[in-house]
Amino acid sequence: MAKLYFNYSTMNAGKSTILLQASHNYIERGMQTYLLTARFDDRAGAGRIASRIGIGADADTYTPESDLFAQIETRLNEGPCACVFVDEAQFLTETQVWQLARVVDDLNVPIMCYGLRVDFQGKLFPGSAALLALADEMREVRTICHCGKKATMVVRKDENGVVVTDGAQVSIGGNDRYVSLCRRHWREAVGDRG
Asked: Which one in 72, 127, 170, 179 has a CA-CA gap of 20 to 30 Å to 38?
């Protein structure tokens, strides 16, 4: 039976690596997969999912306006697909998460979503909130803070390395802009929001 999965973590936890490995496992067994990623995140190139450790794969893209049910249904009409993988799932809209749930329920195709749970201000992304509500199964991909504790938060830094606490929720970047921290060190970095 197909399920909607949400694999979540902070920045730099290896979510894309795990996605690419899982897709490879299907392909290695002769099954086809369908990879999707956010169009505006082109750090690895347009329509490409890549990991910091150097592996990558081409993917179709989605925007906030994309009808993912229709997009996946079109892909299924082209041939068999054992699993759909969605990278940068935090950028999905609530409507798109419902579309993915319909794919699972009505087309019987498993969907594996990978993304961030919270932003640099400690707030849920819309796509993550919807996935936390609708996913059949959730898995935390763990990474660690500099102190050795589990990192659950992330700070954003400006071009001078100074932690910023205001700004747009979405600002594409990697290790140059974001640092994963435990909650205590995040609170220290942002000036204890309590």
From this structure: 179
Q: Is residue 78 part of a domain?
A: yes
Q: What is the pLDDT of residues 123-171, one digit of tens each?
A: 999 999 999 999 999 999 999 999 999 999 988 888 887 777 766 565 5
Domain that holds residue 73: 4-141
DSSP one-letter code for 167? S
- Which of 88, 94, 140, 159 is flagged as catalytic? 88
* Pairing label, strands 48-50, 56-58: antiparallel
CATH of the domain at 43: 3.40.50.300
The phi and psi torsions of 126 (rounded to 5 degrees) equal: -55, -45
Q: Identify whether 148 is part of a domain.
A: no
Active site residue 28: no
DSSP letters of 88-155?
A: SGGG--HHHHHHHHHHHHHH---EEEEEESB-TTS-B-HHHHHHHHH-SEEEEPP-B-TTSSBP-EEE
pLDDT tens digit sequence for 41-95: 665 556 767 777 777 778 889 999 999 999 999 999 999 999 999 999 999 999 9
Question: Contact 180/151 with Cβ under 8 angstroms?
Answer: yes
In a domain, 187, yes or no: no
In a domain, 191, yes or no: no
pTM above 0.70, yes or no: yes
Q: Which residue has the tokens 């201000």?
A: 121
Among 175, 173, 177, residue whose Cα is nearest residue 41? 173
